[in-house]
Design goal:
about 230 residues; alpha/beta; Rossmann fold; 8-stranded mixed beta sheet; 8 helices; about 40% helix
Length: about 230
């Protein structure tokens, strides 16, 4: 039976590569982003590979936009087997929690943490028993790692994503919907930069595994390279 996946922030980078790989595995893919021109370009590109794909224009930092996207999805009258919360921002001005402009903090939490909650809440109605929610986090959000002194607001709210994951996993356990976080590693994307140590194919490896091959019983956990890691 055809499975469906929605990936936020998937017009480029890890999100797009994850969509491409899942599409090659037979998933119907919904690309999503806030820039319609870029989403349309990516949609055409992925369709040119013979992948069954559609789009949802959505700004995860704007609750009204998320609700409108959920309404548009409802018109398809289909289930959503996998939701991947990938959209995130990392602002160049993010250098110090004490010195950052408050706007930097607000924009970061609105996208990187509240966006995950709002998208999960609004699209939950489409996710059946046995469905999956996958949140793209970062080693920067791991409390077990040393603080690296880079993009502190980003790291704080990725730690928030990990706690959101644990809370949602608990709340959705009775519905048999698994919820997990992952660290893709330092990946060569617009966010990661070209000096990063991993290509996007490697960065997409774990989300593709969690969406397709990982045991459904795995929930409320944090992964890198398809292995559980400490929070």
């Amino acid at each position: 039976m055809l499975k469906t996946v929605l990936i936020t922030g998937s017009n480029k980078g890890i999100g797009y590569e994850t969509a491409r790989q899942l599409g090659q595995r037979g998933f119907k893919v919904f690309l999503s982003g806030r820039n319609e021109v870029r989403v349309n370009q990516s949609l055409q590109k992925i369709r040119n590979e013979g992948i069954d794909a559609d789009k949802l224009i959505m700004d995860v930092s704007d609750l009204e936009s998320v609700q409108e996207a959920a309404f548009e999805f409802s018109k398809r009258n289909i289930k959503l087997d996998v939701l991947i919360n990938n959209a995130a921002i990392l602002l160049q001005e993010d250098r110090s929690l004490l010195c950052n402009d408050p706007n930097i903090i607000e924009r970061t939490i609105q996208t990187n943490s509240l966006g995950v909650i709002n998208v999960s809440k609004e699209f939950l109605k489409f996710i059946p028993k046995g469905g999956r929610i996958i949140n793209i986090s970062s080693s920067g959000g791991a409390m077990s790692d040393e603080v690296g002194g880079w993009s502190p607001a980003y790291c704080v709210y990725k730690a928030g994503v990990n706690m959101i994951t644990k809370q949602l996993a608990f709340e959705l356990l009775s519905k048999n919907i698994s919820v997990n976080s992952l660290c893709p590693g330092w990946v060569q994307t617009d966010m990661g930069g070209q000096s990063a140590t991993r290509n996007v194919k490697k960065g997409a490896e774990t989300p593709v595994w969690l969406a397709s091959d990982a045991p459904q019983s795995l929930t409320g956990k944090f992964f890198r390279d398809m292995k559980e890691i400490p929070w």
